[in-house]
Design goal:
The radius of gyration is 21 Å and the shape is globular. The longest helix is centred in the first third of the chain and has 38 residues. The chain is 83% helix and 0% strand. With 462 residues, it is an all-alpha fold.
Amino acid sequence: MTFENFKKMFFMKLPSDVSKKQLRNDIIKIAWPSLVELILVQLCTIIDNMMVGNLGSTELASVAYCTQPKFLLLCTFIALNAGTTAIIARFKGMGERENAVIALRQSILLSLFLSLIISIIGYIFSEDMVIFMGAETSLAVKYGTEYMRIQMLGFVFNALCLSITAGLRGIGQTKVSMYYNMGANIINVIFNYCLIYGNFGFPKLGVAGASTATAIGQTIACFAAFFTILKKDSYLRYEIKKAFKIDFKMIKRILNIGIPSMFEQFFLRFGLIVYALTVSSLGEKPFTAHQICLNIMGVSFMNGQAFGISATSLIGQSLGKNRPDMAYSYAFLCRKYGMFISIILGIFLLIFASPIMGLFTKDDFIISAGVSVMIFLALNQPFQSSQLVISGALRGAGDTAVVAVSTLIGVLLIRPITSIIAVKYLGLWLQGAWASVVIDQIIRCIIVFLRFGSGKWTKIKV
């Protein structure tokens, strides 16, 4: 990292032909719909858990056992979408609309093919995955397997929707995906109420009802997403007659960015699975408290992710225009805004830890366990936000390999190892497990900052 690049990271110097107000407006225009969308998606997950939690701790734990396996299966598409967003953002900046459309079409085609295969595998091995994650009682295995299998039935629609959303983010159209995901979440909550408890004449399905409601919401979001790109005035207009036209060169360009991101996601999920297994060894109730805190952490992620999405889109477009000076400025402001919000959020979590835990469960043991680790969640906020924003900036430049390395070191090595030592050998219980999260985020933050400061990301060709 040169001293000049270090200054660009912490002391912004505006390009002579743009104003701070213009840059800020560009960032907020992309970030606020993304923030609303991400928060709503996470809140929907939280409401799912609250409603299932009313059925009992076993039911809530059974859903928790499905979380990491489900996201592990989604890794391929999250990685593919990193390539889709970066490529389309670069084409947008270069003014090459037709290539942006081709890139989206190839991404959708890949998602369709891969999701069909993965959903079948996931359905067949649902019970094995739930048992592997630590489910011990027959009821927990039964409920978890039901939940996972229903998720696999809606998996294809979820993957396709994610692909379209990634394309829209690349051109900065985050408001559209906010609308269709908002509608899907409302539908999800309504069907939760109907299918979990058997209201309005619907069957009482319990945990299976929660999964069914989620699958219905994801399917509706998918159709709404397709409707968006099928419109004649859409920048990324999707033509059905060209849906299965393969462009191997474009697929290769997407995969050049997506494959390192795929390794990142696999590192992330395998690390989180080992981490989850370590915590689940403490017992069902501590694991339930841990899962609730993860849900809260999921909401806190949204701030960094939203400004990270803004950084991905705007930096990709800036480099497409051959304006690395603007890319630096966008990254600086995205990190600054994300940091400000994260500090406020951390203070909020400290003050209202107990009432927040009480929203999920009435079990005093689980509430107390959750409150005991909330301080680590609060301390983690600034590092978490900065890491997410700078990683998003690097992805926008197509520099996904270093982000993958940071995840390998932080999540696959540091977090599991330190949590195992803290929980199993030092007897630090949940507090030790969550201290490892803070250590992981600090290390990842340092790695991506060093890479960003090197300036090498400005020279990457996609």
